[in-house]
Design a protein that fits this description.
heterodimer; A: alpha/beta; Rossmann fold; 2 domains; 9-stranded mixed β-sheet; two-stranded antiparallel ribbon; 13 strands; B: alpha/beta; 5-stranded parallel β-sheet
Chain lengths: 254, 321
């Protein structure tokens, strides 16, 4: 099976946001980065499909040169090679621009299946995989919790998560695009051997196809507090005493 | 004209549809509003929607979209939108919308802004407000390119009970669309529930919920002790259930249960939107988190910024007094 996994590099969970001067984007140079978590699950699922059915896993990513960090990590975990659509301006790109850049770079590869996370932890569009499916003219399914592939029969059956604890199996022909839900599998981590092997693996750099932005951020800011949150200060014992008092006397929640 | 795409399954409306109608009414500010309901044999649900103060309700009918598929809905709605020519299309940000709306917008070469919680004027444009970076930041976003733009409203962003009702029912019209069933590539099976929801957290009066800040399964006892002291059910955000530290059926959030207890205590939960939509209706919310800037503090009534491993035992001790 020729398996593609699209991954994104996003700021770490511990990152404290800092805005650029015109307050329309973050200061990218100040952030530390990691692999988008749902994409890590997509990668793991791709590696498992390869272990079961053979073939190769190609990791695809769009973004500035810094993205090489997560691409190398994916190669160290077991991906065979990578395609990096490199462009310094694409760190803040919208889902359409990213999907179009991926689509242009991937269309001649004839992938059997394309996996990606259901959304990114940065802009959180939850659109890229589905737009990519449309651009590659492949069927798709989203928020997937189990994948059953039959590459010789050209068939796929996947478990979609619906809301509130409901699920649904959906069948479709291959090739197809799936967006993977976090928790679908247990992640593996890179071994030293994997890290060494990754250094020799191919990363093909591709220039970005130009496409028009569909979204413009006119202002980015720390959220306004909707509620009047009472922050309780002091040491642990003191704060605990004050919290319990307010829950009893003010909120009457105890 | 603003077009709302309503959502139904087996003829039953998704509650988020009414929230979206309420939001769209505010956005329309008196301008025309039309509700479209895709499906097959959805007359009863359409009659229910006609109670809303809207210009009309249009059912988008085809036997090929009796069961939801992204291919079927994209084909049907593309025709309906071309015929109705709205200036803006608004949808609830449900899992179903997430499955087809990006495809529909891409097919029509139009902008799609997802997970919107509000809107404001930005010069001559309308900017849509949405969370980014797991709720750490908020963005005002202006969709680019020709109309109609597509917007999805986050669950809970608008209140269903604030949807204005008309003095008389709105007219209901059926629009038949041609969808080639053989071109639909997805073959869906019947939806099912995995675990016989052994715990119905929606009935709990008090909930103690745990997030990534708990760090390891061996620390779950810290939270369990507080739950015991409060007579509360123990629950968690998604990553904790993904890791298997609590069963999936105790997950709160968009993919788990939605709760509104008297008291909700969030321990080490950052407050990503997928979690917050499942608990923000709680009457009193307490958050304990080491990061004073964590978005959970925006929805909390009482917040303690500090180490939960010191604070939680102190609360347990205080409750024992």
């Amino acid at each position: 099976m020729k398996i593609a996994v699209c991954i994104k590099q996003v700021p770490t969970r511990e990152w404290q946001p800092r805005l650029n001067d015109d307050k329309t984007w973050i200061r990218e140079a100040d952030a530390s980065y990691e692999m988008n978590e749902p994409d890590a699950y997509a990668l793991e699922e791709g590696l498992r499909l390869k272990e079961k059915h053979g073939g190769e896993v190609v990791v695809c990513s769009v973004g500035p040169a810094r993205v090489a960090q997560v691409v190398r990590e994916a190669l160290a975990r077991g991906a065979d090679r990578a395609i990096h659509v490199e462009d310094e301006g694409l760190g803040s790109a919208d889902a359409f621009v990213i999907a179009e850049a991926l689509g242009a770079a991937m269309k001649d590869e004839q992938f059997d299946i394309v996996l990606t996370g259901l959304q990114s932890d940065d802009q959180g569009f939850a659109q890229t995989g589905v737009v990519l499916a449309e651009r590659l003219a492949m069927p798709h399914a989203t928020i997937i919790m189990e994948v059953q592939a039959d590459p010789s029969g050209g068939a796929l059956r996947v478990k979609r998560e619906l809301e509130g604890g409901w699920f649904q199996w959906v069948a479709m022909p291959l090739p197809a695009v799936l967006t993977i839900q976090s928790g679908i599998n247990q992640l593996r981590y890179a071994t030293l051997k994997g890290i060494m092997a990754a250094k020799k693996k191919e990363i093909r750099k591709v220039a970005a196809a130009s496409s028009a932005a569909r979204q413009k951020i006119v202002s980015l800011y720390v959220p306004e507090k909707g509620k009047k949150t009472q922050m309780i200060a002091g040491g642990a014992a003191e704060a605990a005493r004050e919290l319990v008092r307010r829950l009893r006397d003010e909120a009457r929640a105890l | 004209m603003i077009l709302v795409i309503a959502e139904q399954r087996n003829g039953k409306l998704n509650r988020a549809t009414w929230e979206t109608i309420a939001g769209a009414q505010q956005l329309a500010a008196g301008a025309d509003l039309v509700v479209a309901l895709p499906g097959s044999g959805v007359g009863e649900a359409a009659a229910e929607l006609a109670a809303a103060q809207v210009k009309e309700v249009v059912t988008i009918e085809s036997s090929a979209i009796e069961s939801y598929t992204p291919d079927g809905y994209t084909a049907a709605l593309q025709q309906a939108i071309a015929a109705l020519s709205p200036s803006l299309v608004v949808l609830p940000h449900t899992y179903q919308t997430r499955d087809f709306a990006p495809k529909l917008a891409a097919r029509m070469e139009r902008a799609l802004v997802t997970d919107v919680t509000g809107f404001k004027a930005a010069g001559a444009d309308t900017a849509f407000v949405r969370p980014m970076f797991q709720g750490k930041l908020t963005a005002d976003v202006v969709p680019q390119g020709p109309a109609p733009h597509f917007v999805t409203f986050q669950i809970g962003a608008f209140r269903a009970d604030q949807a204005a009702k008309g003095a008389a029912p709105a007219p209901v019209r059926a629009m038949s669309v041609t969808v080639d069933g053989s071109a639909i590539r997805q073959k869906p099976e019947a939806p099912f529930q995995e675990a016989r929801q052994a715990v119905d957290l929606s009935q709990a009066e008090r909930i103690v919920a745990v997030g990534r800040g708990i760090k390891g399964q061996e620390h779950m006892a810290v939270a369990q002790k507080l739950a015991d002291a409060l007579g509360a059910e123990l629950a968690a955000s998604r990553p904790i259930c993904d890791a298997g530290w609590l069963p999936m059926e105790r997950q709160i959030g968009s993919s788990g249960q939605t709760v509104a207890p008297k008291l909700y205590v969030a321990l080490g939960i950052s407050g990503a939107i997928q979690h917050v939509v499942g608990m923000k209706g709680s009457r009193t919310i307490v958050a304990v988190n080491k990061d004073a800037d964590a978005p959970i503090f925006e929805v909390a009534d009482y917040g303690i910024a500090g180490d939960l491993f010191e604070i939680v035992p102190a609360i347990v001790a205080e409750l024992a007094k």
